[in-house]
Amino acid sequence: MALRITDACINCDMCLPECPNEAIFEGQKVYEIDVARCTECVGFYEHQTCMAVCPIDCIEIHPEHIESKAALEEKFKALKII
Question: What residue stretches are annotated with the 4Fe-4S ferredoxin-type domain (predicted)?
Answer without folding.
Answer: 1-29, 31-64
